User: Which sequence fits this backbone?
């Protein structure tokens, strides 16, 4: 009985230490850093090669300033130059287990893309900055994907690269996809409801755009649980709506509209973090998608929740295997 009691107490101490560590990390998330990086990326469109080069250089410089050795993986895909920007945070106990945190840095023609998707890239950069000095069991890849707006070409290529890698095991992926727009007038948010044998939304029919959406497929449900628990524990004021879609999301194609879908197609657990794009934001894919329209405090809370979830997963304190 004594040994069991000691074991339980030891577990409690470890859990408390983990919670304290995550609290400290979450408190480091900076609104100013998020705003600064969104503003830098949204100075121009990011569709042609020259525009994307400016964005690439900014992202690369930021990651290098945090202490990362950054790789730019260039490949011609379907006649288009694709350049994924990659920074790796090597795990200390199980380095062959890989978790991917991704966001696309391209935009559509005619749009400054502040929400889509400078907001998410800024969030990824902030997580990379904070985690650089944090020890972890598994390896974390921070990837700025190219050509999301051209059929997810960048994430497809990177996912296939990981699939072929020897001695590498992808334990999961988070796609940050538009995280900074809110609306708080009833009806400003298109409401989502359950679809039998396809989509499970919780809670249903939310008509205020004051939440962050979490989209996962069959096989990725555990990631939703981890994110939900992290939010409830560390960012209680962040409202979330979860959507679990069957198989690879083909029964409701809107759930596939970002780079996580490339990972679903390869059989990897993955989920999308989204403010629901055009279902909420009237500036979607328009010249009016500018930093002035965004809710930076909301973005900060989203980044805090993602950070807490990534720490739990990469520390091997939870399992997200299907």
Assistant:
């Amino acid at each position: 009985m004594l040994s069991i009691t000691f074991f339980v107490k030891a577990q409690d101490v470890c859990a408390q230490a983990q919670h304290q560590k995550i609290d400290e990390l979450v408190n480091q998330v900076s609104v100013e850093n998020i705003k600064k990086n969104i503003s830098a990326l949204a100075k121009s469109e990011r569709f042609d090669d020259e525009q994307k080069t400016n964005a690439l250089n900014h992202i690369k410089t930021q990651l290098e300033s945090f202490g990362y050795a950054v790789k730019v993986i260039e490949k011609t895909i379907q006649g288009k130059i694709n350049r994924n920007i990659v920074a790796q945070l090597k795990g200390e106990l199980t380095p062959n287990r890989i978790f991917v945190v991704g966001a696309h840095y391209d935009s559509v023609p005619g749009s400054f893309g502040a929400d889509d998707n400078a907001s998410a890239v800024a969030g990824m950069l902030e997580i990379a900055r904070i985690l650089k000095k944090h020890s972890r069991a598994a390896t974390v890849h921070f990837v700025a994907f190219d050509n999301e707006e051209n059929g997810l070409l960048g994430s497809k290529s990177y996912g296939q690269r990981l699939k072929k890698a020897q001695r590498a095991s992808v334990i999961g992926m988070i796609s940050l996809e538009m995280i900074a727009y809110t609306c708080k007038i009833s009806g400003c948010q298109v409401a989502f409801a359950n679809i039998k044998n396809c989509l499970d939304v919780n809670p249903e029919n939310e008509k205020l755009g004051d939440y962050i959406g979490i989209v996962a497929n069959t096989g990725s449900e555990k990631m939703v649980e981890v994110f939900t628990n992290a939010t409830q524990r560390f960012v209680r004021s962040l409202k979330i709506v979860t959507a679990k879609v069957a198989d690879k999301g083909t029964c409701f194609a809107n759930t596939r509209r970002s780079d996580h879908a490339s990972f679903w197609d390869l059989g990897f657990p993955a989920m999308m973090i989204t403010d629901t794009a055009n279902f909420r934001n009237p500036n979607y894919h328009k010249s009016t998608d500018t930093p002035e329209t965004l809710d930076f405090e909301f973005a900060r809370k989203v980044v805090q929740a993602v950070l807490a979830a990534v720490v739990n997963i990469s520390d091997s304190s939870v399992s997200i295997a299907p």
About this structure: The chain has one domain: 2-314. The domain at 2-314 is CATH 3.40.630.10 (Aminopeptidase).
